[in-house]
Amino acid sequence: MRITRTGGARGRRAAALTTSVLTASALLLTACSSDSDSDASESDGKIVLKVADYGQFGYKEAGLFEKYQQLHPNIEVKEETTANEQDYYPKLLQQLNSGSGLGDVVGVEVARIKEVVDTQADKFVDLKDSIDTSQWVDWKAKQATSKDGQVIGAGTDIGPMSLCYRRDLFEKAGLPTDREEVAKAVAGGWEDYIQLGEQYKAKAPEGTYFMDSASAMFNGVVSSSESQYYDADGKAIYKDSPAVQKGWDLAAEAADKKLSQGLPQFQDPWKAALRKGTVATVVCPAWMSLQIENYSGNDFAGKWDITRAPGATAANWGGSFLTVPKSGKHVKEATELVKWLTAPEQQAAVFKAVGVFPSNQGAYTLDDVKNAKLEYFNNAPVGQIYAEEAKSIPVAVLGPKDGVIKDTISTQINNMEQRGTKPDKAWDAAVETIDKAIG
Fold first, then answer.
1. Are strands 75-82 and 46-54 parallel, antiparallel or unpaired?
2. Can you give the pTM of this predicted structure?
3. d(CA 144, CA 99)
4. What count of Cα atoms within 13 Å lies in the side-chain half-sphere of residue 190?
């Protein structure tokens, strides 16, 4: 897996970027832990900085830790990685509450950042005087900023959404295959996406479905709106949110019309469907293309393509931050490491290595980003596509339990698809579960 985040997994692979084409093997990497002495603050006279994160941030694969140590001979960087973010975050909260066991640098996932900013900001170094927040896309910087102006996290990656589609299946169904023509077909928004799905179904190759999961489409709809699950005062508004209602109605329509194969993403049936080639479209945050390539395999190389997401407003799914706990023994050195890792050149290097798209806008003008193409996806110019999408992502209001709400609703959408649960009953079940979870 590329990386495991709340609400879904991101495909992990080894990657190589030539001057203009991003290619990758189908190698799935496993997460690794650091050596048992990772808690030591000094080793052989060197300052040891522990970077605690989850899944795969790409720093090791890009050779950045090794490079930083060459630039700073007095510093040794050790990465302590937890494979699954859902295991990582509870442990992080325990460490924050106890004040011990924390890394010198700590990763925080975007679905958690609001809760951390609201409840734990005093335990982190304010980075606003150490990093240039204007370098980041505006909405990314605001996600890690407290009400009193503290910036507790430096942005790593983002997940601007595109649309991945099978050119060969579209051609067989009589749909346009050129990425610009497909973008025009869904330019009016997610309603156009549903209409395109109906056209696909009318002439669909036997055994194939227009989309993998209506819950993925739901996430795309909601994530492209400023108002999602909470309001600016921290009140849960998901029951009355226009974006949530729109996403739910479209998902129910997709389930009713059998436009979706009804497969929860990242689970084995979903992986098998990609391998068998039964899915024509997947809502694609930047990291998703790598997951598709891993599981679709060589048989479908060049048959996939990528175009812009439906509508004029893009969505974001995924992304993380690097933070510096105040309790660390080497706060100054840790802050400098965070500043360096999130600078344009290093974010471009990570994109080149593992396909994680930068949040630092300065990286978008560098060759490794602006000229990047995915060979597997018919040489789609992903550097340009994702950079353009990132510009139109709204500054969304985040809430402390966004992930819980989204995952619960997604489960009920899956029930509509797989079990035929009626929309009203599915919604009532989602509300009951969410209200119990968020209090």
1. parallel
2. 0.85
3. 21
4. 29
